[in-house]
Amino acid sequence: MSISAIASLRPAGGKCLRHATTGLLSVQVKSPTATVHLRAVVALRPEQRRLQSTTPSPRDNASTTKKPQITFRQFIGRALGVSLRNLVVALSPQGIRRSYRENPAVTTMNILLLVFTLVFSAVAIRAYINTFYNSQFSRYPEPVANTLRRAIYYTNYKPDPELALRYYKKAMEQCTEVGLDPFSDEVLGIRIQVAFWLEKINSHKAAIDVLESVLGDCRKWVDVMEQSVKDGKVNDQGRYVGDAQQQVAAAKPASDGKAKEEEADEAAPAEPIETLWHKRERLLLKAISTSVKLGELYADEHVLNPDQSHNHLVWAVESSLKEFRRRRTEGPKPGEEKWLSPEELGGSMESLGRDYERRSQFQLAIPLFFQALRLCESPCHRAVIMNNLAAAFAQQPLYTAGTMEPSEGLKELFNDSMPKTRKEFLEAGLNWAKNAYLHAKDVKDDDRTPECDEACAVALCNWGDVAAMLGKPELARNKYNQCIEMSKKMDFSEGVKQAQEGLSKLTTASLTNA
Questions:
Q1: Is Transmembrane among this UniProt entry's keywords (predicted)?
Q2: I need a labelling partner for 271 at 20 to 30 A (CA). Which of 200, 247, 339, 407 fits?
Q3: Would you say the pTM of this structure is higher than 0.90?
């Protein structure tokens, strides 16, 4: 005989929001012959009581809808806040010590990466500020400066000729709109920068056109100002006559508001007004430097216009010397400062000397090289000028005196102390090549630059060339070999090429004589 029993317990019926405290216990006892059902109401234990209904009440729905919805910006802000707090905790001494104890290798690597990132960021930010927010841009009004930053970016960092030219043109238009003086250093500087950029992208003809326009404008202003001085239109203070009365009339207030603005301007420190003589000096310097640059461009292999190159270089040197003579006789004018530095004057003379050398007028190039050497302050570049002198003396042919005369403005640089025979010219060339080598070799420490090393190699080659011309083949062969050895060490291919050509000429000459 088998008997089975089934028991169940469920909370008593009632409102679902009320906590049930009693339950209905049902027991079913079943046998093959009979079934018995027993029911009883019992008290529920605390853990059996129902605490929440499965169906939300209207009050619960109301409380749920009243919760504020978080926006994406708030979510990002809170996430960043939590991240920063975690970062601060992680970078605190306690956080670093705890992290190092748990995983020293990873912690050390993370610290090194963090330091590297900070240093790299600091260097990058500083380079960015020095490139795009330096004193050169701060001289311009902000709209012009922003346009120039874009132009420089598309010039040097992400080359795009069309965009660069567009922004340069826009900068010039903005300079006109804001009323900048077209002869100010800022506006002329943009035009010259455009010329250098055009030369950089191998548009030499366009670069020459831009520089010719700069030179023409500067020379025209200087000529008009000098004519005004001759006509008595410039007073002793370097102002046009009548400017004072015009300034007084323009300074009268037209309204109370303008009067207050003028009082504020008077309270602020006024910038000194540029005199006409100072402006003439500034524009004449700009014209001379532009003329020298044009001389170099016209002599470039992409242009090859030697006559124009010569004319510009001669004008630059003659104008420099003419201004020196005027200041020596008349004295400085109001606002004038020191004239050309020795380096600038020597550079223009050296450029003209190289032009005479290209034209095979060595007797005119030599005095200019002497003047450039006297004015040069760079030890390494002095060796370069000495090499130019050695080459000029070595190539100087005999000529009839007076067949090639310098221009009137340059005659004071020339004298009659030149050698008279071909042998004297060659010996002078040999001495200057030797001097160039010894001088470049003796430069030490910070004064020594790669220019010194190349000057040493060129001097050895010149030394060998002149020695071969003087009939000293052994000395020439020795100097050529030294030049080849030195040039190979410094990877100076031009020096190796010239010395090897000299050796081949020596070999050919020896075979011919044999």
A1: yes
A2: 339
A3: no
326-329-331 Cα angle (round to 5): 80
Q: What is the pLDDT of residue 238?
A: 76
Amino acid at 431: N
CA–CA distances in Å: residue 193 to residues 48, 152, 160, 197, 316: 90, 10, 15, 6, 20
* Spacing of C-alpha 190 from chain mean position: 14
Site of tokens 């970062």: 87
Under DSSP, is residue 26 helix (H, G, I), strand (E, B) or coil? strand
User: In Å, what is the CA distance from 230 to each residue of 227, 272, 278, 395?
Assistant: 5, 26, 17, 47
CB neighbours of 461 closer than 8 A, spacing ≥ 6? Answer: 479, 480, 483, 495, 498, 499, 502
Domain boundaries, the chain: 1-47, 181-245+274-340, 364-406+415-514
Label residue 219 by pLDDT band (50, 70, 90): very high
Distance CA 70, CA 74 (A): 6
Residue written as token pair 């602020």: 268
* Residues 211 and 289 sit within 8 Å (Cβ to Cβ): no
3-state secondary structure of 80: helix
Which pLDDT tens digit goes with each residue over 91-135? 778 777 777 787 788 778 877 887 888 888 888 877 767 766 766
